[in-house]
Fold this sequence. Notes:
heterodimer, A: 947 residues, alpha/beta, Ubiquitin-like (UB roll), Rossmann fold, six-stranded mixed beta barrel, 36 strands, B: 74 residues, 0% strand, repeat (chain A), Formate dehydrogenase major subunit (chain A), Mopterin_OxRdtase_4Fe-4S_dom (chain A), Asp_de-COase-like_dom_sf (chain A), 2 iron, 2 sulfur cluster binding (chain A)
Amino acid sequence: MSLISETDYGTPLSRAEEQVTLTIDGQTVTVPAGTSIMRAAVDAGISVPKLCATDSLEAFGSCRLCLVEIAGRSGTPASCTTPVAPGLVVSTQTERLKQIRRGVMELYISDHPLDCLTCAANGDCELQDMAGAVGLREVRYGYDGANHLGQEKDESNPYFTFDPSKCIVCSRCVRACEEVQGTFALTIQGRGFGSKVSAGALADNFLSSECVSCGACVQACPTATLSEKSVIEIGTPEHSVVTTCAYCGVGCSFKAEMRGEEVVRMVPYKEGKANRGHSCVKGRFAWGYANHRERILKPMMRESIDQPWREVSWEVAIDRVASEFKRLQEKYGRLSIGGITSSRCTNEETYLVQKLVRGGFGNNNVDTCARVCHSPTGYGLSQTYGTSAGTQDFDSIEHTDVVLVIGANPTDAHPVFGSRLKKRLRQGAHLIVVDPRRTDLVRSPHIEADYHLALRPGTNAAILNALAHVIVTEGLINEAFVRDFCDRDAFEYWMQFVADPKNSPEAVSLVSGVPAEAIRGAARLYATGGNAAIYYGLGVTEHSQGTTSVMAIANLAMVTGNIGRPGVGVNPLRGQNNVQGSCDMGSFPHELTGYRHISDDATRHAFEALWNRPLDREPGLRIPNMFDAAIEGSFKGLYVQGEDILQSDPNTKHVVAALSAMECVVVQDLFLNETANYAHVFLPGSSFLEKDGTFTNAERRINRVRKVMTPRNGMADWEITLAIAKAMGFEMHYDHPAEIMDEIARLTPSFAGVSYDLLDRLGSVQWPCNGAAPEGTPVMHIGGFVRGKGNFMITEYVPTDERTGPRFPLLLTTGRILSQYNVGAQTRRTDNVIWHEEDVLEIHPHDAEQRGVRDGDWIRLDSRAGSTTLKACITERVAPGVVYTTFHHPQTQANVVTTDYSDWATNCPEYKVTAVQVSPSNGPSEWQREYERQADHSRRIAKAAAE
Amino acid sequence: MSGDKLVMMANQIGKFFVPQRGIDPVAAIADHLRKFWDPRMRAAIVAHLEQGGADLDDPVRQAVRRLKEAEARS
């Protein structure tokens, strides 16, 4: 193994189709028009010295190192800013150029502290490299110039330092913040020798500035000015392994740069097709949880949840799981136990859990946490288009003219895609935001939405119908697309439905609170603005009409012909890293891999033949149904892999009651999470750094996860499932996760061509990947829908049963913040807590004033389901009548307040609409105090030695 | 399984399928229950129907009846 050194072409790739041929240092090279001479030289294998250029940024032309000579032209132009032209004859190395470059380097070095041996970037410094490349042997100005070592370092950021003494003012960090991340937090302050990089205003440091810690500046820095603290502490890495981030559904590729088995840093991989070399604060820096002191490394068990945990051997723990599950089935019946797979686990792991449940438990009581996020996407898109997935790849955004973002906050929840989206918006694409909150996308530096439809929570379907009403009644239909690709009868029915005056913007404005003219304007823009793409998130799905809204989105894209080519489409932004994959892998109780219903005899027989087990043809319980069945007394045992259902699922008291009613709860996780407080067996899990497998991101891209260190708990998660299966009498034989993927491919038509060999060769692949598409499918539904004709569905708006009233006059909606992830199990155990150490309640100034609440006050949040307390954050981000919080911290337990209401088709909980009241409070509620007491009591670990 | 909750869930399903055109909404509701509800949930809603089917919307009531008949045949 060695350190992966990616080629830096100096300037970005030109996408021009026209080709240009020129000669560089005697070599003929042909490149796309618009390519810089610097990049063309790299293509020809020639490296031109450079400092201010890097291929993630537009050419800047400030360092004057990359000068070249061009036959017939005077002067020495910078190769980074000079485009190629037909027939040019370029020289990159002449006596004149050598002299100029040495002169430039002398100037840089005369103003640089020459402490290379103790510098964190020693051996990984472009300034050092360039000194060598230009043959610098002396500095005529001497070495007595300012070394700047007295300048104060900015160490405020928990993950990287800014050392101004090392800065050569190349502006790469400033430009990375602008061009790649789109935050505009950095600038160059002062002039001449006084020029320096500055984060925000004079009084700011990196932490107090607008910086979002994406790491783009650190990555771009050619010296040690911006350095990861981990590199400073550990030293430079010696080998790297390409793997996939374990956070959100963007699925960024990273180089895990290692020294032995210690991670030195995670560096976004330029070849990663989802992230194209960019990252966010979570993937780039928040991986330290794998070594957190609270990580559990030994199996534990106990007779009841009142007892302390007792460490045991793997054999004893696995035997307990199997014997308890067998006992429960004998006593309460075959259907009395089940399992939950996780969107945080690999495809191979989730596949094995559903295989264990179906083949080993003999029922279909398996579900996944996608139940509580994107299950409506699966059902809604399968009914309209014929497949349960988004239609595009992330690169598609580069061809989009109008972006409609509904119920999603990509700059917080899918930050790397958010940056790519903002880049496209800065290039001139138009933006419509449909969201009750004023998210950052609505207005931020160089970004402003054309329309922000700040709808009342729970009225998505009404708004989407109103947009369709305008399109239909104003004649903005793409007749040719509908005629060629959609079911005509379904379209006619649907057209009559949406044309009804009850769906007009004027009528819908009364229920949604959105002005009719804004709805009309947004609809016209979406239908007529060119390539229009819809991106949506849990603000669409987590409603009682989540599925209906997904269908309404699908209808909008069809009626305008925005399907089947780059730049358009329907794009669900998946919450967790492997939501798409866990759904693909047959984690839902009613279907096997590839979304085939369990009652389909041919499909089921194929699995039965390979697994050598009869399978139940009846659908199993979904997660909320498991809870209900537990309370009712027919569901007694649960195996939970990598999920914290107690914190993440709605109506916490109901979940507590359900878990308490079970006789054997088995939790497999890195930490004693909240669910583990009600567990009887704890199986320590392995982190993404410790195992092989694959994740499938929101664009259907299957990415490899590669083991970079030995599992600290002794077993990879897939091996633990194998052990349980064996103990249950259902033996499975795999020596490596690659073999599990081979089995998945054998049983799943859309994965038929997928293998680890293919992934190693291509880097990643988007399903369907089979004989018809051997290298995958970036854009779906080209020339027709998977189901045949596109199916318009009637999407009648039905108000949720969760209503405001005198007791609960406000509507609560929940979401995420950039620095934290889901239930926070990982990010709370990193330095990311510096940005968000507790959940707060956003409340509009009018609502706060009416209740006598001031910013930072403790408030009590009551709903029909329960109460909690947290601190108030007064802001106009939320509209009057709407409050908002996150669910990252168990001390707050936002889900104590959320209700049992759920989507009609899938039981996806209605997290986004809860009627609440807010009142001043003195501190934690009775329930919170009791919860904390119970949690502390439950987490005790006995000191007895392992059995 | 709580009868009230299942009734509410079944009625929600009904509210989606009843406005659909070109299909038999009763059959569609029954099919949805058959495909997505675990046997004990189906048994519970059928039992609720047998006890009078309080609060079930009419098309849903018909669908549960059809479900009951189909399950009796299988």
